[in-house]
Amino acid sequence: MIPTEASTRTTAITTTTKEPPTPTTAIYTTTTFMPTSTTEVSTTNTAASTTTTTSRTISTYDATTTTMNPTVIASLTPATAASTTTTTAPRTISDATTTVTAAATIISAAPTTNKAAATQTTTIPAKNVSVSTSTTTTMAASTTTYSIASVTSTMKSGTVLVLVRLTFQVNKSVPTAEEVLGAVKNHLSNQFLPQTYLDNANYITLANNSFAIELAFQITNVTLEETVSPNGALTFTSETYNQIQDSIDSLLYNIVSKPEGKQFDLPNATFTVVSNQISAGVVYAYNSADINLPSAFLEDVLQVSGLVMSTIAPTTTAAATTATSTAMSTTKSGTVLVLVRLTFQVNKSVPTAEEVLGAVKNHLSNQILPQTYLDNAKYITLANNSFAIELAFQITNVTLEETVSPNGALTFTSETYNQIQDSIDSLLYNIVSKPEGKQFDLPNATFTVVSNQISAGVVYAYNSADINLPSAFLEDVLQVSGLVMSTIAPTTTAAATTATSTAMSTTKSGTVLVLVRLTFQVNKSVPTAEEVLGAVKNHLSNQILPQTYLDNAKYITLANNSFAIELAFQITNVTLEETVSPNGALTFTSETYNQIQDSIDSLLYNIVSKPEGKQFDLPNATFTVVSNQISAGVVYAYNSADINLPSAFLEDVLQVSGLVMSTIAPTITAAATTATSTAMSTTKSGTVLVLVRLTFQVNKSVPTAEEVLGAVKNHLSNQILPQTYLDNAKYITLANNSFAIELAFQITNVTLEETVSPNGALTFTSETYNQIQDSIDSLLYNIVSKPEGKQFDLPNATFTVVSNQISAGVVYAYNSADINLPSAFLEDVLQVSGLVMSTIAPTITAAATTATSTAMSTTKSGTVLVLVRLTFQVNKSVPTAEEVLGAVKNHLSNQILPQTYLDNAKYITLANNSFAIELAFQITNVTLEETVSPNGALTFTSETYNQIQDSIDSLLYNVVSKPEGKQYDLPNATFTVVSNQISAGVVYAYNSADINLPSAFLEDVLQVSGIMTSTTAPTTTTVSTTTTASAFTTNFTASVMPITTSGTVVVFVRLLFQLNTPVPNKDVIIGIINKQLFNQIRTVTLATLKNATYIQLTNTSFAIDLGYQITNVTMVATLSQNDTITFTNDTYNQIQVSVENLLHNIVSQPEGKLFTFPNARFTVVGNQIMADVMYVYNEADNNLPSAFLQDILTVSGIMTSTTAPTTTAVSTTTTASAFTTNSTASVMPITTSGTVVVFVRLLFQLNKPVPNKDVIIGIINKQLFKQIRTVTLATLKNATYIQLTNTSFAIDLGYQITNVTMVATLSQNDTITFTNDTYNQIQVSVDNLLHNIVSQPEGKLFTFPNARFTVVGNQIMADVMYVYNEADNNLPSAFLQDILTVSGLLTTTAAPTTTTSTTPLPTLLLTTFFSTTSGGGFPGWALAIIIPCGIAIILIPLWILLACMLCGCCAAIRRRWHRRRSYNVQYTTRNGLF
User: Is the pLDDT of residue 1400 over 70?
Assistant: First the structure.
């Protein structure tokens, strides 16, 4: 909670409570600022199933109160062992306190408490000391020390702060703050219970029809019993909590009920202890069934709220005092509101509202059933070919039977609902059918009860199979809709009244529409539309099969190297056999579909092959039936192995595509007509392309391109092996200390053996690949080693075949242990790289030819580089770099240990409340023992590493502790060896329990950080026995250490909506978000909305991205010995609950039903947890949508009545399923080309404040919006910048990848499931897209995280999050370079200087010359200053010239003007003379 006074300092207090009474599962937190400020309130009442929404309007009763006395009632489960909370209340409670434990004992036991309870150090303010002071004072004590192990208790009298929250749901607009707070002032301002005082009251508007009253009380002179365990921890007893709970129950009961009223279940309070001050919070959602005699205060509130107390419950209860405990019933007559929704699917444009409502007026305006009246009718256009009619009826004089349980709750009986359902069935049947028509299954209605008023809703999707005799109303609607009723079904049914129940068939002749899609993969750029459509015109425009006509053709570019041709045909005079079941449903027989499949096979075969060509497997078609019109679609991906004699059309297409048909297959096939079915082989001589990549790791800056390519020119330009030629060489800077050389070779006259299977497919034999691998091994060995050098394991090559051309690639990372005699080329490269080959290995090997195989060792003296990282967690803002580095300069700049020198120091801000200090040391004259194995490999012995570890332990201990301080477990170092140079790194997270005597350096750091260590600990340590000292260092082995802290979680919520109409406008959605969400504080989880984005996915679907911060989340992490921080499952579970509460508040009213939300996906960046959750809106989930969701649904055209939230059970897919009733139970594959929506989230963690939003958006507009990602046909649709913390941010990019081939299986129940191959293909496209976003094309490939897939309707959406890691990317894209520059993560840009890069980005040309390597050159910020200044300097002469010209022009004009004036004067004078 943010303090309201500048003098109030936030202090973290760790307390331990012991089994308070029945802890609730809710989090209850409130924060109150000045009367004009906002109040955050977070409540969950498990008894009333009410979760709060957020306040927008707050009025304060006591205007003189600056802070709400209940401070914070945070997420504390009293049964938990320890919890850290924060208080800002400036009030000090001065109560007499008598303790039985010495102050020294308390302080000395505190570290042990921290170890056991997994919390930070506990500091206890003394009585009469405000927590706003900047120092920590130990508790005063009149001491009596007990040495027994049992806990001791003390009794004192204190004050408890109680926050009572009353929530009300009304049927009209909420009352005003003056009306409600007037009732508080009139009835609660006086003391109505002993020692209970009202501090202040707040009025909060939760929604249009709900509000809350917050009452802050103080209960004084409460007896508080504390238990003091031997380790000094103070907790209140369970009896204390039970006593306070009783007082709260009495308080709450008297607030809402008269003393003589009936008893009811009161909610449990939640307790929080901060600095031994108990605060309690309780939430009660008003329920009229609970209270039969409301208090005077509650009566006034109900009066102004329009909630009149029902007198049925008390009367019935009084009359049934002798009855049993069973429910009692009353009967009355009432009215039921019924909303009937009829939906229609048409084949043409929808009718007009006048036509449809005219039919309503003509036929339904009169009373169609007794006591049933039409209130109003509404016409709704759902899509271009669907519409709905909503009819609102009143059914009067309905007998309603209510049951009254002993607690006064009123509910309607199941017989009442059954009776209403029958009435609705009769009403719906008469609306759509004549009375003598056949019966059909009617959908169930959904019921809603508001203030004892029953409303029902029913949705019926028109199905011609249901109705054989439509009503006059329905006939008119069908007439204007173009839906003419089929008379076959009733006629056939009438003629078959004596027949059995088997289906009856009719035969007719019709037309089938066929869409053929041919896809091609090429090796060059795709042909033009004119070339391809010219081939269609030349060969397919005429009738290629009897009664088959080409309607139209379409050319589609799929990617740079793939395209498709779509051909639409009509097959006429097809015999169609329909089966008519007794219920009038019409479906086509399986024979009909088989006949059409044969026709499509014949059509497709003739399109791509000559008649005498070989047969091959043709793909199955997919069928669709709309209004008895059959349409079929088939997709064929061209495969040269399928077709040995292409048709004239296909030949032309292959010709313009550069796909020349191989003539080997048909020739061999003709020659082998007597051969068996085994594969046949041919042998030829060809060329293999080999790309060799050598990578090097160096200890200094990388060499220049000239130096490395000079070595290539000197040694590799000549032919180093027979028939092997170097094509080109390329130098690539990977990082500041690593580079690569890429060498492209051609190996000629390679014997290539191809196998030709009977189906004409050509593949190379394994012998061919083995032969090429041998050649590559020989080539690579000769590049890096002399022929007489030792053999070593060479990496395997990877092979690629494109148009029968074999290409191979091999990567070798240089390792000095592999090569004892480097080649002349490698020697030159090592020389310019500073990698001098060790001569120990060959010398020892030569001398030890008779030795055994055991390793040999040598000893030398060297230097070890040590990087010490100290991390600190503070309770206030982190100190400045000057303060921390000043402490380093004062205390560590001198030599603190022999032969140990500080190289440099670095200050790093990790978060708002944590920072790190990195200290780089050199330890000189370290004895290093190397072992040399017979194969020449050099490694350091374990004794060497142990010796270095001891030196690091001594160094770290002296950095943070005085020599006489206690010993504690120090973390192990991690070692890295590069070119025989040992580097070590160690991370230590400061823990006050470890150090009793901090060093002068650490004292200064703690001083500027506000972490004041207690000075009583050393006194206690010296006085105590050795057992006390051991208590501080309970031998922690490799087990992890728990750390508890309070932090912030960033939550990304994505809401997806699928519509039947075009999506609403972006401004409308953003306006709703601004109105409903930005002004609200989600107090259930202390969630604050930081940003919102609208994303249009398709024409009929959109998404809303909401970025929230949830504060004051208790996080428990385990810290292993290697300082790895891992959050516990309980932490993630707690965050999941908070996310679900947040989601429920966003989409549902507090009293709405609970439903299952998807699990969040968690990502940890540094110590920051981020949660990502996606929810696809489902009408069936939500019975009471929130005001925000209601507005979204309204503008989206999903305006459902609140009485029928679950009516989506009626599906319009019954017709489609009717067409496939004769299929088997197996699923049917469907292949189609569609669009995938990809959400890419890029996360960046910085060491300085994040860049400005406008800067990032400007980079995105410049680099991404104007680019088309052609690798995957991805188009950027939207982009969003999200600031996560002060030092981290995210970029959300929404892409569409078009023309993705999707294969789905369609089960008998019409469920569509996409195959794994589809998802794998999309994953590859997403990986390519991500690589293009963050890397240049020639950049190295690295592993991206897997995408998370969601299917909405038939639309696949992929969601992927990538946390930027510098080690992943050696050649960042222009976009990423700009982002890194403005973020301060500017790494070397030497990569763009690659001499043979084929696709340089123009945006990098400017920086190529200046920013080369770390050895020199200008940084990006210097360029930003120099370039504009240079331009301005160049333009100065032009400005001077322009000024001179203007001055000259002005002077000439001025002289001319003066002459004209003189003319006028002279002329006037002369006239005067005459």
Answer: no
